Amino acid sequence: MSAPAGVRAAAARLKAWLLEGALPIWWERAADMAGGGYHDRLNLDGTVAEGPKRLRVQARQAYVYAQAKALGWTGPAKLASRQGINALLERRCADGLYRTAPDWIGPLDGMGLLYDQAFVLLALAAERAAFGDWGQEEVALRLVRRIEAFAQGGGYGEAPGCAEPLFANPNMHLFESAQAWRAASPNPAWRDLAAGLARLAQQRLGVQQLQNHWRHAVLEQYRPGWRAPASAGDWVIWPGHLYEWAFLLLQDDPQDDDARYTALNLIDTAERAGVDRERGVAMFALDGDFASTDRGARLWAQTERARACARAAALTGDAELWAATLQACGAIEAFLDVPTRGLWRDWMAPGGGFREEPAPASTLYHLVGAIMELDRQASAPT
Question: Would the pLDDT of 184 be above 80?
Answer without folding.
Answer: yes
